[in-house]
Design goal:
The longest helix is centred in the last third of the chain and has 22 residues. This protein has nine helices and nine strands. α2 links the parallel β2 and β3. α8 packs antiparallel against α9. By secondary structure, the protein is α/β, with parallel strands linked by helices. About 40% of the residues are buried. It has a six-stranded parallel sheet with strand order 1-4-3-2-5-6, sandwiched between helices. It binds adenosine monophosphate. The site of adenosine monophosphate has 17 residues, from α2 and β5.
Length: about 280
């Protein structure tokens, strides 16, 4: 695996690949890698000649009281995991390489950035869109691979790609879970033992919601009542949101009949650690 911390040598290397007609797939991450990230690398490997993975904890997408400084980091371990997953290129820039002192541009995607995570994290998606556009301009891949776990992020980036005529195709991959159902996340290591046990309620609640809908319930408020009751039994976690929204527009759903694809989405807070998860449903 080739590793770059600077943009210019990375671009020289990737230009060489492109001249030899190699297809490039790109997986942006914030590191502290787990099987969710690695599943994206494997998918990209299958569909491309070379996979570029970036590791960059992007301060711009963290709010002032969020966990930027506590966000887990271990580049040595990540390098090893990426080597084993057969990634071709690791791009791990410093903050100074990505944001020069006079940096003053940001990208904001409107409507779909505002509900769900946008309510408690009003500047988050602008930070995400800005760094993803920068990374796409640097790497210039055929395909960008994102995980369904951050479904709103996938929608925001897809909308940006459409609105700004970006060249890259945006591809979404399924959520990887721990044995007990908890969605894999770099933040899971920040939980105490008891918080970790409470966190399993997130997927339990979502699954219960899915079961209700599958057995014919069409009133979203009824489904949400059940989901919130299960989440409410957590001793240490607090519900940030539990919503059912249209998977395309992210607008709230009342009657599930009227929407072909719905997203059941949850965010829970364990002190400062915020976990999200979702289930996509064809109704
Ligand atoms: P992060 O490092 O958390 O910014 O995530 C980098 C990419 O990995 C994003 O596209 C995430 O959606 C994706 N990802 C994170 N967790 C998972 C998971 N459990 N399953 C699948 N993809 C994931």
């Amino acid at each position: 695996m080739r590793e770059f911390a600077r943009i210019a040598p990375l671009q020289r290397f990737l230009n060489g690949l492109r001249q030899r007609k190699k297809r490039i797939g790109f997986v942006p991450t914030m590191g502290y890698l787990h099987e969710g990230h690695l599943s994206l690398v494997r998918l990209s490997n299958k569909e491309n000649d070379a996979t570029v993975v970036s590791i960059f904890v992007n301060a711009l997408q963290f709010g002032r009281n969020e966990d930027f400084s506590r966000y887990p980091r271990n580049l040595k371990r990540d390098r090893r995991l990426l080597g084993a997953a057969a990634a071709d290129v690791l791009f791990a820039p410093s903050a100074g390489e990505m944001y020069q002192g006079d940096f003053q541009t940001s990208v904001t995607v409107g409507g779909i950035s505002r509900p769900l995570c946008g309510v408690s994290r009003p500047t988050h998606f602008s930070g995400v869109a800005t760094v993803v556009l920068k990374l796409l301009n640097i790497v210039n891949p055929e395909t960008l691979y994102l995980g369904q776990k951050d479904y709103q992020q996938y929608r925001v980036v897809s909308q940006m790609a459409k609105d700004l005529h970006l060249r890259a195709r945006v591809c979404m991959a399924p959520i990887m879970r721990e044995k007990d159902g908890l969605a894999m996340s770099s933040r899971n290591v920040l939980l105490s033992g008891e918080e970790r046990r409470d966190a399993t309620l997130i997927y339990q609640a979502l699954r219960e919601g899915r079961t209700l809908i599958s057995s014919g319930e069409r009133r979203a408020p009824r489904v949400l009542q059940v989901i919130r009751r299960i989440l409410g039994s957590a001793r240490l976690g607090r519900i940030d949101y539990a919503e059912i929204v249209d998977a395309e527009t992210l607008a709230p759903v009342v009657e599930l009949n009227e929407h072909s694809k719905a997203l059941l989405a949850v965010a829970m807070l364990f002190k400062r650690t915020r976990l999200i998860d979702n289930i996509l449903m064809e109704v």
